[in-house]
Amino acid sequence: MASVVTIQKKLGAYYTPEEVTTTLVRWVVRNETDWLLDPACGDGRFLANHQNTFGVECDCSGAVSAVERAPHATVYVGDFFTWAEETTARFDCAAGNPPFIRYQHFRGDLRENALRVCSKIGVRFSGLASSWAPFLAVTASLLKSAGRMAFVVPAEIGHAPYAVPLIKYLKNHFTRVQIVAIRDKVFPDLSEDVWILFADGFGGRTNEILFSERQRFPTSAVPPRGRRVTDGEWTRWNCRLRPMLLSSGVRQLYQAMVESNEAVRFRAVARVGIGYVTGSNDFFHLRPSEASIWEIPSKCLLPTVRNARSLPPIVLDGKTIQHWRSRNEPYLLLRLTRGDSLPAPVRDYLDSPPGIEARAAYKCRHRRPWYVVPDVRIPHAFLSYMSGKTPQLAENKARCSCTNSVHAVEMINGWRTSTLRKVWQHPLAHLSCELEGHPLGGGMLKLEPGEAANIVLPLPRLSLGQSDLNLIHDGISTMQVWRHYE
Length: 486
Ligand SMILES: C[S@@+](CC[C@H](N)C(=O)[O-])C[C@H]1O[C@@H](n2cnc3c(N)ncnc32)[C@H](O)[C@@H]1O
Description:
By secondary structure, the chain is of the alpha/beta class. The protein folds into two domains: 4-240, Rossmann fold (3-Layer(aba) Sandwich); 271-482, Adenine-n6-DNA-methyltransferase TaqI, Chain A, domain 2 (Alpha-Beta Complex). The chain has 19 helices and 23 strands. A nine-stranded mixed sheet has the order 3-2-1-4-5-7-6-8-9, with helices on both faces. It has a five-stranded mixed sheet with strand order 11-20-16-18-14. It binds S-adenosylmethionine. Residues 11-16, 38, 40-42, 45-46, 56-59, 62, 79-80, 96-97, 99, 110 line the site of S-adenosylmethionine (SAM).
C-alpha cells in the first residue's frame, strides 16, 4: 500500500495556511456575486472564503472534505485539464495553490493531456515543466474579461526556464502581472520556497512585470506595490526574476560588468560537461586494498573524483591522491578499453559475484561490452554542481577523471587553468554563481551545465574600488539569505 507521504507527493497535495487562503481570495474577489474557481481545491480551504465558488479536485477524499468545509461550493471530482477542455464556464476570478509535481512524476496521459490543452490556448511547455505552470495557464484561459487570479507558486517561477512560457502568456493576456517573493517559509515542512503570483485584467496585455519582495507573507487587503520590471530588463536577466532580489546598485554594477570588456562568460573560457556514468559505482570504483587483493594491474586503474565530497578546494594534485590512498577510499576507476585483451586478474574480478551483479545493472546491460565505461575523460578542472557556500573549482593536476557527480571543465580559447582558478576567487564570480545558478532547498546552490556556462568571470586586469566590492559582497549575502544558506 502506498504511504500517505507518497500519495501526497504524487498529487502535490500540500494544503495552504489559512492566512494565505483568506488573503488571496480577498485580492481577487471584488463583488459578493463574483464566481471564483480553485482548479485544485484540495479540502476546500480557498473555497470556504467566498460564497460563490467552484472547485476541481481529482482526489475523492479531498473533494469530500471540500464539500464539508464549503457546503455552498460546487466541486467537480476529476482531472482539471479534462474538465477545462470541455467546460464552457467562465469565472470572474481564480485563487488557489496548484499541485507542484515535478516533471519526473508529472508524466503519462496526465501530462500529455495537460500540455495538449495548453498548446490549444497557445502556450507551449517543454517536457521539463512541473504541473503548476500548465495549471495556471489553463486557469487563466477560463477567466471572463477583466478577470483576476492569485496563486501560491513555487519560488522556481523566479528562475526555471519552464516558467517563461507561462509568464509570457500572462503578460499577453492581463493588464497587470505581479510576483511577490517571500523569504520566510510559508510551508515550514517543505524544503521548497513559495512566492505569490497575482494577475489582473484578463483580456488586456502588459509589457512589464511588477515585482516585490517581503520577508513574510503579506496579509494586506490588496497586493503590495511592485517595482516595474520591463520586458527589456527581464530579457537582459535571461528571463529570470531572482536577480530582482538584489538592490538596484548591485544589479547595475553586474550588468555593467557583463557588458564591459573586463569580464567574460564561462563559456568563452571553458566547456562544462558531465563526467562518466558507470552504472554500478561500487563495482567500478575500487579501494587500493581491493585492487591489491585482486592484483588488478595499475594500467587498468585510473584515479577519479567519485563525488563532490572528495573534491579538494583549488587544486587536485599528488597530495590529494596520497590522502585518498591513506584513507583507502574507492578512488580507482576500473578503466578498460574496447578491444584490449583482459589481464587474468581483471577477468577474475569481472566474473566475481559483484561483477555478475554489476553486469545486470541497467546501464551495463545496455552497453557492449558491459565493462567498458564510456566517456571517461581527463578534464583540466572540476567544478562542484551542488554547493553550500560557493561552488568549488579545483585544477586537475593529478590527471584524474570524474563521475557525473561533478562537472568536468575543459579549457578553450587559450585560457590557462591557473588563470581560471585565480579569477574564480573573485567576488564577482561568486555573485555570478548565485545569479546564474539556482537554489535547491536546504540552503544549497545548484549549477546546471548551462547555468555554469553563463557565469561571469572577471578578466585578471579588472580592478574594482572598495565601494563596488562592498556592493558585490552585499549582493552575495542577499542571495545567500534568500536561499537560506546560514
Ligand atoms: C497543493 S494542493 C492544494 C489544495 C488546496 N487548493 C490548498 O491550497 O490547500 C494541490 C491539489 O491538487 C490536486 N490535484 C493534483 N492533480 C490534479 C489534477 N490533475 N486535477 C485536479 N486536481 C489535482 C491534489 O489532489 C491536491 O489536493
